[in-house]
Design goal:
The complex is a heterodimer of chains A (245) and B (491). By secondary structure, chain A is of the alpha/beta class. Chain A has two domains: 24-204, P-loop containing nucleotide triphosphate hydrolases (Rossmann fold); 215-244, no CATH class. Helix content of chain A is 27%, strand content 22%. Chain A has seven helices and eleven strands. In chain A, the strands form two sheets. Chain A has an eight-stranded mixed beta sheet with strand order 6-4-7-8-3-9-10-11. In chain A, strands 1-2 form a two-stranded antiparallel sheet. In chain A, β10 and β11 form a beta hairpin. In chain A, α5 (111-123) runs parallel beside α6. The N and C termini of chain A lie far apart (70 Å). Chain B folds into four domains: 5-178, MutS, DNA mismatch repair protein, domain I; 181-231; 248-349 and 356-376, DNA polymerase, Y-family, little finger domain (Dna Ligase, domain 1, 2-Layer Sandwich); 416-489, no CATH class. Chain B contains 16 helices and 20 strands. Chain B has a seven-stranded antiparallel beta sheet, with no helix packed on it. In chain B, strands 5-6-1-7 form a four-stranded antiparallel beta sheet. In chain B, a hairpin with a 5-residue loop joins β9 (284-295) and β10 (301-306). The longest helix of chain B has 22 residues, at 261-282. At the A-B interface, β5, α4, β6, α5 and β9 of A face α15, β12, β13, β14 and β17 of B. β6 of chain A pairs antiparallel with β12 (381-386) of chain B, so a sheet runs across the interface.
């Protein structure tokens, strides 16, 4: 019996990787950052699970996704945040141009509910942001999400802690985010169809900031004994505030 | 040939008679089974049980309406005798009226049938014959036996009711001819009048109508003249028209009791189908379903299914109810399941776009929210909200999903973090060095935010800080007690 029908059916599957076939990489959505687009061969893969492994919170891991959220919510898509580690701060989301009524925060009680809600969101054609805070999901669970995502029209993002890198992931794209110096986010590619792992770029996040200050040099730091400058003139303080903007 | 369609458009009344209504109303679940078994419905009349209605197989045994139950049982020992329940008959008629309401805006409920004013309803259904065909299929789905009659007035339609359901519309000549040849004893009239008819040698309605009106009015009283005018459609029918109720309530009884959640789904499905008919008739979607499960003994249990109000098909409502039912603790045996619904939203005037993408997307979103709501509970879902307040924890909050926030917020000038800690975390201070997870350095600031001075004075100076690993935080120092806190994370 020939193996051709078997091969054909295998090739028809969305999750079969075919060497250097770039045709699969047509379905991407631009990240809004040119160097990141270059690293990811065009942008975030649509109809796939993307895993973002972060060293720690607060390095700009969510800001690189803000253009994507804005893009999808402007298309009337729902954006589901499953188990976010902290409370999303509405004013900054509004500043980023994201309509709040398109966001939905979902809290799960256990890993079973987490998986169910994630799969439902993907199948419901929503843009999914999932955080695996409680326990790292099993390979089979993530595989389920990846398979569900192949039928979806939006990307699905999973934020994993750093120790997730020890295990394999069925996600189509896996990148590691870390910040070695302030305002610079370095992104390491761990897995992407059609590209060798290990590629690394650095992008700047946040605003250009003012110089670092020591605590006793603060303008309003009048109460510390070391500081000699009490009663700063008001105009000076305004100058410093404008740096912040 | 001579009757063009528009000629019969003037006044068309359809009468749907339900000869087996008494049986169909009292046996909901086992109706299919009962077709082969002789069944009769009996009512009490002067201390005696009389047969009110019986099915075909009972008739084949020789059982007839008006026969006493003891006689019927003597003729047919296998006869199943059920008790007449007028209330349930009325409920069934109401359900059928809801279905008929989709075909005609004018429905009148009779004791064992329905009138439909079909005049002008042909356009919507591409002709009367299609309308009748659709109506018949709908009635068959409800597993009722229906027969029909068509006339120019409600009374004529009832008189002309035949023994089967006609799926085509007779032309006006046929109707007129049939009416004229109808026997006079079917006309609603007193015994004395019937005798008079006999003495005059009148046997059909045609004979009566052929006589001059003035002569008739001299001979008979004004009631008969009224009847004749109503029969010919000269006088409008004044019976009250059916209107769908303002809220939906329906129940399914199960005297044997239901012992598992799977078996509960059958009565639930029936109820949801009824709800669907109701929603279609009222052109609206439901916002909330309330299920009531009543056990044989003990306290009943409620289950509320909240809906985003955008889908109404029986299957999706059933799957939502099913998801929620899995979470519910129920008594071991359920005798009655009832469904109550009183919150509705108007069905949006849908305009289909050419490729159908947008429509399905909105439906998907609503379905997703409903699903998550049913399985995880309303408390698991929330949405960021924004308020015009100065303190960050009040300006950005988390609210219920149906709560709308104030979108007229001016975008602030300063950079704000994406994450807010639910409660500000205190920062340790060692040797003029701030510690939170790692040593922190201040990058920029301050921005002074004050709020709620009338409650307790809060004056905070917010700074942007970062640690050695590049993580950026939003920290503040309280002016009153000089303590430092982390409040946000720039993710």
């Amino acid at each position: 019996m020939s193996s051709e029908p078997l091969l054909d059916s295998l090739l028809l599957r969305h999750d079969t990787w075919r060497g250097r076939n770039r045709s699969l990489r047509k379905h991407v959505v631009a990240t809004g950052n040119n160097s990141l687009d270059g690293l990811l061969l065009g942008g975030w893969p649509v109809s796939a699970l993307t895993e973002l492994v972060t060293q720690q919170d607060g390095i700009g891991e969510l800001s690189i996704l803000l253009p994507t959220i804005k893009h999808y919510t402007s298309e009337d898509k729902l954006c589901v945040w499953l188990d976010p580690p902290y409370q999303p701060y509405a004013p900054s989301l509004v500043n980023a141009g994201i309509p709040l009524d398109k966001l939905l925060i979902v809290r799960s009680k256990n890993s079973k509910e987490w998986l169910w809600a994630a799969e439902q969101s993907i199948r419901g054609k929503a843009l999914l942001f999932a955080w695996s805070n409680k326990a790292q999901p099993r390979y089979s669970a993530l595989r389920k999400l990846q398979l569900a995502a192949t039928e979806s029209l939006a990307p699905a993002f999973l934020f994993s802690p750093h120790n997730a890198l020890k295990t394999h992931s069925p996600a189509l794209l896996r990148i590691e985010l870390e910040s070695l110096e302030p305002n610079a986010l370095s992104i390491t590619l761990h897995k992407l169809r059609g590209k060798m792992p290990g590629a690394k770029i650095q992008i700047s996040v946040g605003d250009v900031m003012a110089e670092r200050m020591l605590l006793d040099k603060l303008p309003v730091n009048i109460h510390y004994p070391k500081s000699q400058q009490s009663g700063y003139p008001l105009s000076k303080k305004d100058d410093l505030q404008s740096l912040n903007t | 040939m001579q009757t063009a369609p528009h000629q019969i458009d003037q006044n068309i009344w359809l009468y749907i008679k339900l000869p087996q209504l008494a049986i169909e109303a009292v046996t909901t679940n086992t109706a299919i089974l009962l077709k082969e078994v002789p069944v009769a419905v009996a009512y009490s009349h002067k201390n005696a049980q009389c047969i009110d209605c019986c099915n075909q197989s009972a008739k084949a045994w020789g059982v007839d309406p008006l026969m006493s139950v003891s006689t019927a049982l003597a003729i047919c020992p296998d006869l199943t005798v059920l008790t007449k329940n007028v209330q349930q008959e009325q409920q069934l008629l109401q359900q059928l009226a809801l279905i008929a309401y989709r075909f005609s805006p004018e429905i009148i409920i009779d004791t064992d049938g329905l009138w439909l004013d079909l005049s002008g309803c042909a356009q919507l259904f591409n002709g009367y014959n299609r309308l009748l065909k659709k109506l018949y299929t709908q009635l068959c789905r409800q597993s009722v036996n229906a027969t029909s009659g068509v006339g120019k007035s409600p009374m004529a339609a009832k008189l002309l009711c035949s023994t089967k359901f006609h799926q085509y519309l007779p032309d006006s000549g046929e109707i007129q001819c049939a009416l004229m040849t109808t026997a006079l004893n079917t006309l609603p009239s007193t015994n004395k009048q019937q005798q008079n008819f006999k003495q005059l040698g009148l046997t059909t309605i045609g004979d009566l109508l052929a006589l001059p009106r003035s002569a008739l009015s001299q001979r008979f009283n004004s009631e008969l003249m009224d009847t004749l005018q109503q029969l010919q459609g000269d006088k409008p029918c004044l019976l009250t028209r059916f209107k769908p109720a303002n809220e939906f309530h329906s129940a399914v009884q199960n005297p044997q009791g239901l012992y598992s959640k799977e078996s509960l789904l059958f009565p639930m499905k029936t109820l949801l189908q009824r709800l669907y008919q109701y929603l279609m008739a009222r052109q609206c979607y439901s916002r909330k379903l309330v299920w009531r499960f009543e056990p044989l003994l003990g306290k009943h249990q409620f289950m509320t299914v909240r809906l985003s109000g955008s889908n109404h098909s029986g299957s999706s409502l059933l799957s939502l109810s099913r998801i929620q039912l899995e979470r519910l603790e129920l008594p071991s045996s359920i005798e009655q399941v009832s469904l109550f619904c009183d919150q509705f939203t108007a069905m949006p005037g849908l305009s289909f776009d050419l490729f159908g993408d947008q429509m399905s997307l909105q439906e998907n979103t609503a379905e997703l929210i409903d699903n998550l709501n049913a399985r995880l509970g309303a408390e698991a879902l929330s949405r960021p909200t924004i308020n015009t307040e100065h303190l960050p924890e009040l300006a950005g909050n988390i609210g219920a999903i149906d709560q709308s926030s104030d979108p007229e917020q001016q975008p602030g000038q300063t950079q704000k973090p994406l994450w807010l800690l639910p409660k500000p975390a205190p920062i340790k201070l060692h040797n003029q060095q701030l510690y939170w997870r790692k040593p922190l350095t201040i990058v920029s600031g301050p921005e002074r935010l004050c709020g709620n001075w009338w409650q307790s004075e809060q004056q905070r100076d917010y700074y942007l800080a970062c640690d050695s690993k590049g993580a950026r935080y939003w920290i503040f120092r309280e002016s009153t007690n000089k303590r430092w806190f982390v409040h946000g994370i720039f993710a």
